[in-house]
Design goal:
- The protein has 64 residues and is mainly α.
- Helix content is 41%, strand content 0%.
- The longest helix has 26 residues.
- It comes from Dendroctonus ponderosae.
- InterPro entries: TMA7 (IPR015157).
C-alpha cells in the first residue's frame, strides 16, 4: 500500500452538462442581470472620476 493511493478516486474528466433550452423567464433573467452589471460598471466609473467623499477622517484639535 503506497502513500499516493489513499483517499477518494476522482474521475479524470467531468461529464458534460446537457444543454437545456432557455425559456422566456430564463432569457428575461439573463437580460436583467446584464443590465444590473452594466449599471454597476457605470456607477463605478462615475465614482472613480470624483475624489474621495470624506476628506480627513477624524480631526484632532491642537489641545492635549
Amino acid at each position: 500500500m503506497s502513500g499516493r493511493e489513499g483517499g477518494k478516486k476522482k474521475p479524470l474528466k467531468q461529464p458534460k452538462k446537457d444543454q437545456r433550452e432557455l425559456d422566456d423567464d430564463d432569457v428575461a433573467q439573463k437580460q436583467k442581470l446584464k443590465e444590473q452589471q452594466k449599471a454597476l460598471q457605470e456607477a463605478k466609473a462615475k465614482a472613480s472620476q470624483k475624489g474621495p467623499l470624506v476628506s480627513g477622517g477624524i480631526k484632532k484639535s491642537g489641545k492635549k
